[in-house]
Amino acid sequence: MFHLRTRSPHELWLVIVDASASTRRHQALSDAKGLLAQLFDDAYRQRARLALLTASGQTPKWQVQGLKASTGLRDWLEGLGAGGGTPLLAALGEAGRWLTARQKRFPAEKQRLLLVTDGRLKEWPTLPVLACPGLLIDIERGPIRLGRSKVLAAQLQSEYRHIDDLLPG
Question: Rounded CA gap, 50 and 104, in Å?
Fold first, then answer.
């Protein structure tokens, strides 16, 4: 007997990771890696597709673009280091253009954004509109916190959470 499988629309999780030099402070990137490992496992179990963009050095770099989550992401995650500047605005612009093109190709796909950053940008003009629900995870730590991630999340119309609220305590 053949059964037709009901196909719900695929989910795409767009993950942008700020791996600039400032994220090395106070174990921020290290803890973010643990959170990302859990996210990749969840994506794999839920058969979600992932797009992964890192913001470090001079320009953002795509790691994966819309592929099914796989165990190979663990190797990338283990090798992820922090350094250089914060091309986060360029990453957000690139992500916005990519999402728009993808929405045209896959109009039924449910898209979600996860932005992992310490928000340590000097300034930003206007931010691109990303037409999907988002969550910004603030990894800023230390005795002096600038708190720019909250403002960034509000301007991106994304939910805001601090990493310390997400880690088992």
Answer: 17
Which tokens hold the place of 20? 């600039």
Contacts of 87 (CB under 8 A, 6+ apart): 55, 56, 57, 58, 59, 60
pLDDT at 84: 82
Was domain 17-166 assigned CATH 3.40.50.410? yes
Looking at residues 61-82, what average pLDDT do you find?
85
How far is it, in rounded angstroms, from Cα 50 to Cα 34? 17
pTM given for the model: 0.90
Nearest 10 degrees: Cα torsion 89, 90, 94, 95? -30
Closest C-alpha to 56, from 108, 100, 18, 5: 18
- Domain parsing of the chain, residue ranges: 17-166
β-strand partners of 49: 12, 68
Residue spans of alpha helices (H) in 6-147: 28-45, 73-79, 88-105
